[in-house]
């Protein structure tokens, strides 16, 4: 091979290899993340102006919403993605408003007009725990809003899954495609959403900077492997979960705390996902802390505590019986 041919081949290879990730990154719309969410308070009754819901525009068509720590200790995040024809809201939070509609009043005005009326909105959920769907009822009176339930039959009918949890589906918003990837393990109908427009992955409670609460370790592992396989060759600038439970030093807030001083940022990186399958394989079944999240199986921990309490109780009873026998003897 001539030297010119070698140089041409090297140049072509370098340009091709170099161009691929640059092109992939260039297709994802950029945006900004908010770093100063309301930190709640130890005594929320003393807070004069706690926001119910905070809204941050990641970009013009992508909104990050969060319920206040003074409204619910879960302070869940929700995501609004706007396409050319339709909008998609992922989760409706943990507050069931009885006499008002704070979430609907926040979300609906963000929707643009389409053909002279408000753009249709589809609501989906990361999963069926109540802190992600409590606001569904706020939207039932709106004919242009479609709520897809979080149960398996609703997901199959509404999102078109035919081989749960092995297939993924696409939600078309008009010039914007969002993929829905089944990820049971924390909850049996958990779904992760991947938005092609921003390359953001919305991971609900499956992956977040806080407690990864395992319901079924083997199922969680298979989901992590499936998600890694799905996202492996795609750009993922940020992974956005549904809660933040770590401070900037990496310490967990107490469960149920309404106060998150010096809270860590919401976003995890692709590396945090890539490391997850191996960490779940190594999981001791109880508690495993890592820098950006803690893998925990509360039911197993509870069983150990219950077994420990049972042993202590038996020892106490045995001691009392022995004491009584001795005194009588
Ligand atoms: Zn959950
Ligand atoms: Zn949750």
Content of β-strand: 15-25%
Please identify which CATH superfamily of the largest domain we are dealing with: Ribonuclease Z/Hydroxyacylglutathione hydrolase-like
> Secondary-structure element sequence?
HEEEEHEEEEHEEEEEHEEHHEEH
**Number of helical runs?**
7
Global outline: globular
- Return residue spans where pLDDT drops below 50 for at least 5 consecutive residues: 1-26
Which fold does the CATH topology of the largest domain refer to?
Metallo-beta-lactamase, Chain A
Q: How are the strands of the biggest sheet laid out side by side?
A: 1-2-3-4-7-8
Which cofactor or ligand species appear? Answer: zinc ion
Write a concise synopsis of the structure shown.
By secondary structure, this protein is of the alpha+beta class. The protein contains seven helices and 17 strands. Mean pLDDT is 91; it is low at 1-26.
Structural features:
single chain; 329 residues; alpha+beta; Metallo-beta-lactamase, Chain A; 2 domains; 6-stranded mixed β-sheet; 29% helix; binds zinc ion
3D structure, described in words:
Helices cover 29% and strands 21% of the residues. A 6-stranded mixed beta sheet has the order 1-2-3-4-7-8. With 329 residues, it is an alpha+beta fold. Strand 10 (177-182) and strand 11 form a beta hairpin. The protein folds into 2 domains: 22-296, Ribonuclease Z/Hydroxyacylglutathione hydrolase-like (Metallo-beta-lactamase, Chain A, 4-Layer Sandwich); 299-329. The protein has 7 helices and 17 strands. The chain has helices spanning 3-27, 102-107, 152-159, 217-231, 270-274, 276-281, 298-328, and strands at residues 53-59, 62-67, 77-82, 87-90, 113-114, 117-118, 121-124, 145-147, 169-172, 177-182, 191-195, 200-204, 211-213, 239-241, 267-268, 287-289, 294-296. Mean pLDDT is 91; it is low at 1-26. Residues 127, 129, 186-187, 205 line the site of one zinc ion.
